[in-house]
Recover the amino acids of this structure.
């Protein structure tokens, strides 16, 4: 071809040579001309053969430019011919040979007839024409041509440059041509073909673009200002690849609109797979390892689907992962701005405690308008009054901790603040801030060697708390001694001593006039004196003598050992009795008055002073109990959070609490505490080891004679102590009644006078008429503002029941009403009444309260029928009792919740949120509150659930409420606008099945009716969660079923229709989308592995990975490893880590995360993933959800293997074994061409999933690896498998009854569900089809006869099993000999057949194991299809065969699962390790000790009560 430089002669010679070469290339092809075709008619680009469709645009451009420059048109057609020849070099496609023949004839003719017009050579001609075309049509025409015209121009320019590169070598292309080409490539995306609206085009716009609605829509689409802008850079590592390898073209692209942004975001995930996919589609694979299912499919369609199907499914998981990241970041930011975690340790509390009273005044004290406008306390009197109010609340908080046994007497005394107004000049801080300050000050003064007072006082004043402690002790000692002394002269001595101290300090002569060496002796004597004052006494005279002696010793030490001129002070104290001074000297300090010892306020001073003097160590770790620390720090931290100011009690919103109760535990009985499990462990022993410090505090409390527990039944006290640590109704009622106590105290602080407040809430004289009136008024106002109704659905039936447990529950409920007079109980009463002479059942909703010794009926409302039989139990239980609630607000509390006094004090602040305007003029209708999961310390599983639930009820709901605005009601302690909801459908939708998760439907209902839901974290309520593996799984199954019903409900549909796009996405990902993503996660594993199974068994994977072109691309390997389900497990813990880090510190968060992984938390969460996916998917497919009672007791027992098998067989074990077989087959039939490292890299997370699904229930089962229990479990399981079922036989007793129960969902499903079950079962036939062609006995045959023979083998095996089964039933009893002969003949036949197969047919040992992998799934498919077609199978008489085949598979699965457990149980250390894994270290030690002791003691010896009692 022609060059772009040189002399004219050289150019002419090159042109002639080029024409000759082109002519030679053309004449080598066969020339068969179609005489019927008119040679002058342009080639119709639309009539090219379908296999050559890619050249149609080139021919179209050739036709366009032919009038302008025929030579360039010729060159374009030459490019099209060359491309067609490369695409089909053998002309095998339909019509290709004729088309190429015509094209060749046409090109020969045009080569002779056309000549370059602009230059002398083709190289220069096409470049020149390309430059002129771009200059004229692109640079000049972009502002005066329509988008359609510009799209056509850019298409022509692109084709011209493609033809140019064919004619001109890359090194000969002009720089100007290159610049035009780059400009075309950069801008052609703006002029792509469009439907109606040219969104990206520039230039003249059509009239439709001027419509106002179109302009508004385009502005919205193009608004990408707040989106993160991704940049996709070119990748240079593809430059060295083989030129035949198709590599992805990476390019930079500007972000013009939302579509560009979405394309760029997903660009980096999808594009790396495009290149390898194109390579795979172009590969020609002719040899398969089996008869190909789709032999006529082109472009390796099956491989592309196998690779891309999991990738598409992964995007559903990716959305959930991105939401987890989003909620983590924004939830953490919102939490930080809400001041969460600012006080999270005792050290932080100590450093900020000085500001706590001021924060308390701002948040929790009802202030007048003038007081509220003042940011600081105006005077000292107001400050002291605020301190007094704060001390009342703080001390009641501390006393509640003591009554709950979270702290000891010693810790209580350290935490209390003085109740009463004391005549001291400094703030009286809690002793835990002042602990050890006095002993340190004494030592500091004793060791001080200098003479200057200033230096000593400077050191003391450097520590503010030490200076405060020294001053307080000095002034309090003066008051105590003055109060005790009855003689005025003795009091004068004390005054003179104090005057000497104060005068010396003013004159800076303290060290000169007092000996510091005597302070330790004085300190010890004062401590002894305080201890004496705190001791009880019986002989008053003897006690007074001891007090007198101690006071005299104290004065003597002061006078002789501490004061330099002490005797002069004594002389000055008796100026008018100098004559009988010596006589008086012997009688001094003998007259005392011990009546102050009976004054509670005065004794508080003594206790506080004793604590300050006696505490030698710092109280930095007080309190020791972690729960007490958490409550103290959270309460202090909440005072610095944003909350509405507290109104006066009279002006606050009135509210009620409603708690539904069925038959749960109210109070544990003595028998339940004594009952021991198989290891000799009782509930009491269990709790003593879990809560050792609380048990010690409990013993200290009930053994304190001052508290009056001596007259009470010890076992009754123990019952309460245990019940308050479980999930019982008594714990819930005690917690909710804290609201009553808090309101009482708030009324007292608001309406009592200053003298009453300074006297103290606990120490005030309530017999005084004025004080009694205050407390009566407070009680009345509290009853007006607060109501608590417990809806005990079957309380009436329990009172009449003959069952001991029911009667016990009724008695305990009655005792609760007698203990708390404000408590009300509602129940459904069933009576028989005469109507028209007939006896009919009538139902009433009844409200009762506690009377003298029995309950008293208040209201009785007749019901139209039995509500709990019409709808779901729990919501109907709430609906019938809601009429008995009062007030503007209603808090819903579950039966397993708790409350705290300090949080109850903030209730009126929360209720003020209903009066605050949010989002324009909207007020909330539901107030969401955070929870604390109090069951986290019971076991490792409880800890996992506690962390997971805590992250949801804090950071999760924080983000749901703001900014997403999709928070609903989740069955937690939310507060409803009662008037809003009872006039709009109530708080509980109760339709059976669909409203299984009734709580969230109330949130749906509120939102649909215009309500607004908020979330508030400055107040918290306790919540119990399931603590055992089976309990947790039942709970997850119930929630998954509920979400499945939500997915099918109209409520979700209506919300999705009414939400805007972004709120709809938020709604999806935070409700049903989470469970849908969980199901997709599991489905992705199946799709991935079955795709690999297809590729491995068909031989396609060997051909693809063995191809060098594909092998060069690492993107395909990345795609193979992209389906790691473990990654979603890791990313979903991000919110948990963020919340723990925010509230407890990130070092603690990382530490907790590591410990959770060491305790196999990943295995637990992976197992629960299977639970969610199974029950959600079954509900979507078949419906029929049901309530699952989880039980809320302590899990200290071993669950038998049969129990675990029944519960997890279908949801985990069957699926786990299926995935196990898939992984084994993939490993076995791919190891000849795939490295083991690549296999593990792809499948390691799936192996982890399989192990978790198969063995997690036994790892987290107490004593799951104890050898004796394993043997007992095996025996029990065999008995259960062999028992026959029937009417009235429970699933726990017989495998047949359980098997029938597992098919309940198929009895109520529709034809769609049955067809889906059958279609899904067909996947098990793939194993047999693929594996039989890999057997050695098949001798590499690809005939369908091999597959047919495999079915003959399968039929023979089933027939033999049927013969044995029938023989056992018909001949096993009466014709034993005939049955034995039959079995012998079958055995001989089996041996004969196997011998022939090994010797004649070439059967190998490996074929036997491969046959198991091939035929076992086929048999299981028969079982599943038979269950789905049960009516038809029963008609043809094969149902019993299906049942027996299913029983055989159950035996096999049970043995496979139990074998590893039995092997590990053989080693004793495995059981010990498991116990330490499940429970904390203290319980593990106690368990081992209990086992040793129980083996040596008499079994009749009771062990449930501590000897300390």
């Amino acid at each position: 071809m022609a060059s772009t430089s040189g002399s004219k002669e050289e150019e002419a010679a090159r042109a002639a040579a080029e024409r000759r070469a082109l002519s030679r290339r053309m004449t080598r092809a066969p020339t068969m001309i179609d005489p019927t075709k008119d040679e002058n008619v342009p080639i119709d680009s639309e009539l090219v053969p379908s296999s050559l469709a890619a050249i149609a645009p080139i021919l179209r451009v050739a036709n366009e430019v032919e009038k302008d420059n025929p030579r360039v048109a010729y060159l374009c057609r030459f490019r099209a011919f060359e491309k067609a020849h490369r695409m089909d070099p053998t002309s095998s496609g339909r019509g290709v040979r004729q088309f190429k023949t015509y094209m060749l004839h046409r090109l020969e003719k045009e080569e002779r007839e056309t000549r370059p017009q602009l230059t002398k050579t083709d190289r220069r001609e096409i470049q020149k024409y390309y430059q002129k075309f771009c200059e004229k049509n692109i640079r000049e025409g972009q502002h005066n041509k329509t988008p359609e015209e510009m799209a056509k121009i850019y298409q022509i320019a692109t084709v011209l440059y493609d033809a140019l590169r064919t004619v001109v070598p890359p090194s000969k292309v002009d720089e100007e041509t290159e610049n035009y080409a780059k400009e075309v490539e950069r801008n052609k995306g703006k002029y792509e073909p469009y439907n109606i609206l040219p969104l990206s085009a520039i230039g003249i716009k059509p009239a439709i673009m001027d419509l106002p609605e179109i302009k508004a829509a385009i502005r919205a689409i193009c608004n990408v200002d707040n989106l993160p802008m991704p940049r996709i850079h070119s990748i240079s590592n593809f430059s060295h690849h083989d030129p035949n390898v198709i590599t992805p073209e990476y390019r930079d692209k500007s972000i013009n609109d939302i579509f560009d942004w979405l394309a760029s975001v997903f660009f980096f995930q999808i594009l790396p797979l495009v290149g390898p996919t194109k390579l795979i589609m172009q590969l020609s694979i002719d040899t398969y390892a089996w008869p190909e299912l789709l032999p006529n499919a082109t472009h390796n369609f099956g491989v592309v689907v196998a690779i891309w199907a999991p990738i598409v499914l992964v995007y559903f998981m990716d959305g959930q992962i991105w939401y987890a990241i989003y909620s983590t970041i924004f939830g953490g930011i919102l939490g930080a701005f809400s001041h969460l975690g600012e006080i999270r340790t005792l050290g932080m509390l100590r450093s900020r405690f000085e500001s706590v009273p001021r924060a308390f005044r701002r948040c929790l004290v009802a202030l007048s308008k003038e007081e509220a406008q003042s940011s600081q306390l105006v005077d000292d009197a107001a400050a002291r009054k605020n301190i007094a109010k704060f001390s009342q609340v703080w001390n009641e908080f501390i006393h509640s901790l003591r009554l709950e046994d979270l702290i000891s007497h010693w810790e209580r005394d350290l935490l209390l603040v003085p109740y009463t107004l004391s005549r001291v000049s400094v703030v009286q801080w809690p002793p835990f801030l002042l602990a050890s300050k006095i002993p340190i000050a004494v030592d500091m003064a004793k060791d001080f060697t200098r003479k200057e007072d200033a230096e000593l006082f400077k050191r003391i004043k450097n520590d503010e708390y030490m200076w405060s402690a020294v001053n307080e002790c000095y002034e309090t000692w003066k008051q105590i001694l003055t109060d005790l002394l009855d003689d005025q002269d003795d009091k004068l001595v004390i005054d003179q001593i104090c005057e000497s101290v104060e005068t010396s300090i003013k004159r800076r002569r303290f060290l000169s006039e007092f000996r510091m060496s005597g302070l330790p002796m004085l300190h010890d004597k004062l401590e002894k004196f305080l201890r004496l004052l705190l001791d009880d006494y019986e002989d008053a005279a003897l006690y007074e003598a001891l007090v007198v002696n101690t006071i005299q010793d104290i004065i003597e030490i002061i006078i002789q050992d501490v004061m330099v001129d002490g005797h002069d002070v004594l002389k000055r104290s008796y100026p008018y009795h100098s004559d009988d001074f010596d006589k008086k000297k012997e009688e001094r300090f003998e007259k005392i008055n011990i009546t102050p010892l009976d004054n509670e306020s005065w004794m508080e001073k003594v206790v506080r002073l004793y604590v300050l003097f006696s505490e030698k160590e710092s109280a930095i770790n007080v309190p020791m109990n972690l729960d007490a620390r958490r409550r103290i720090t959270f309460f202090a931290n909440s005072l610095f959070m944003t909350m509405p100011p507290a109104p006066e009690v009279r002006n606050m919103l009135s509210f009620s609490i409603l708690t539904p109760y069925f038959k749960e535990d109210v109070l544990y009985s003595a028998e339940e505490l004594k009952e021991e499990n198989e290891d000799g462990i009782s509930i009491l022993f269990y709790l003593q080891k879990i809560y050792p410090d609380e048990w010690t505090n409990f013993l200290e409390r009930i053994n304190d004679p001052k508290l009056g527990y001596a007259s009470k039944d010890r076992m009754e006290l123990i019952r309460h102590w245990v019940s308050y640590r479980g999930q019982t109704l008594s714990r819930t009622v005690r917690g909710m009644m804290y609201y009553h106590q808090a309101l009482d105290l708030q009324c007292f602080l608001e309406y009592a006078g200053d003298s009453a407040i300074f006297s103290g809430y606990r120490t005030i004289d309530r017999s005084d008429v004025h004080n009694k009136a205050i407390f009566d008024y407070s009680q009345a106002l509290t009853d007006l503002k607060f109501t608590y109704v417990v809806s005990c659905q079957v309380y009436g039936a329990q009172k009449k029941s003959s069952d001991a447990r029911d009667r016990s529950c009724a008695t305990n409920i009655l005792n609760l009403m007698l203990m708390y007079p404000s408590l009300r109980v509602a129940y459904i009463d069933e009576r028989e009444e005469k109507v028209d002479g007939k006896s009919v059942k009538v139902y009433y909703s009844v409200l009762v309260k506690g009377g003298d010794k029995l309950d008293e009926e208040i209201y009785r409302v007749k019901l139209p029928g039995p509500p709990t039989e019409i709808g779901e139990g729990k919501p109907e239980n709430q609906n019938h009792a809601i009429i008995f609630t009062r007030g503007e607000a209603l808090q819903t509390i579950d039966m397993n919740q708790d409350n705290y006094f300090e949080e109850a004090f903030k209730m009126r602040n929360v209720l003020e949120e209903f009066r605050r305007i949010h989002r324009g003029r909207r007020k909330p209708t539901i107030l969401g509150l955070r929870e604390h999961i109090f069951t986290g310390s019971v076991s490792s599983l409880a800890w996992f659930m506690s962390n997971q639930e805590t992250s949801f009820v804090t950071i999760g709901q924080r983000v749901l409420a703001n900014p997403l605005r999709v928070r609903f009601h989740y069955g937690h302690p939310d507060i409803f606008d009662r008037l809003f909801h009872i006039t709009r459908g109530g708080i509980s939708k109760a339709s059976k099945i669909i409203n299984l998760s009734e709580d969230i439907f109330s949130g749906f209902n509120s939102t649909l009716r215009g309500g607004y839901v908020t979330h508030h974290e400055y107040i918290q309520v306790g919540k119990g969660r399931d603590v055992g593996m089976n309990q947790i799984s039942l709970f997850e199954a119930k929630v998954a079923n509920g979400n499945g019903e939500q997915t099918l409900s109209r409520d979700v549909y209506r919300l999705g229709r009414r939400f805007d796009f972004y709120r709809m996405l938020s709604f999806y990902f935070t409700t049903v989308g989470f469970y849908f993503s969980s199901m997709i996660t599991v489905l992705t594993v199946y799709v991935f592995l079955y795709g690999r199974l297809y590729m491995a068994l068909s031989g396609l994977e060997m051909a693809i990975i063995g191809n060098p072109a594909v092998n060069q691309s690492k993107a395909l390997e990345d795609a193979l490893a992209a389906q790691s389900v473990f990654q979603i497990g890791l990313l979903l813990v991000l919110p948990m880590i963020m919340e723990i880090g925010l509230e407890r510190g990130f070092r603690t968060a990382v530490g907790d995360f590591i410990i959770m992984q060491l305790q196999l938390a990943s295995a637990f969460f992976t197992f629960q993933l299977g639970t969610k996916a199974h029950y959600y998917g079954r509900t979507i497919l078949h419906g029929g959800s049901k309530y699952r009672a989880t039980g809320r007791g302590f899990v200290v027992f071993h669950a038998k293997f049969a129990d675990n098998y029944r519960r997890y067989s279908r949801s985990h074990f069957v699926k786990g074994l299926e995935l196990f077989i898939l992984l084994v087959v993939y490993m076995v039939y791919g190891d000849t061409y795939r490295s083991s490292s690549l296999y593990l890299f792809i499948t390691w997370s799936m192996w982890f999933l399989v192990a978790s699904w198969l063995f997690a229930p036994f790892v987290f089962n107490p004593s799951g690896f104890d050898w004796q229990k394993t043997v007992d479990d095996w025996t029990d399981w065999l008995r259960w498998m062999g028992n026959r079922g029937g009417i009235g036989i429970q699933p726990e007793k017989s495998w047949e009854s359980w098997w029938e129960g597992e098919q309940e969902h198929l009895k109520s499903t529709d034809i769609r569900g049955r067809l889906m079950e059958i279609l899904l079962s067909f996947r098990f036939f793939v194993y047999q089809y693929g594996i039989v062609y890999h057997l050695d006995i098949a001798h590499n045959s690809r005939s369908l006869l091999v597959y047919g023979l495999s079915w003959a083998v399968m039929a023979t095996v089933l027939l033999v099993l049927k013969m044995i089964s029938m023989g056992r039933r018909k001949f096993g009893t009466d014709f034993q000999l005939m049955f034995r002969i039959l079995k012998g003949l079958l055995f001989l036949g089996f041996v004969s057949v196997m011998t022939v197969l090994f010797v004649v047919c070439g059967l190998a040992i490996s074929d036997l194991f491969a046959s198991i992998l091939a035929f076992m799934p086929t048999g299981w498919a028969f079982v599943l299809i038979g269950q789905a077609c049960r009516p038809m199978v029963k008609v043809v008489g094969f149902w019993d065969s299906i049942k027996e085949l299913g029983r055989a598979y159950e035996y096999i699965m049970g043995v496979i699962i139990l074998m590893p457990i039995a092997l590990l149980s053989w080693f004793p250390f495995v059981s010990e390790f498991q116990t330490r894994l499940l429970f904390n270290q203290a319980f593990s030690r106690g368990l081992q000790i209990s086992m040793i002791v129980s083996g040596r003691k008499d079994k009749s010896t009771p062990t449930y009560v501590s000897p300390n009692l």
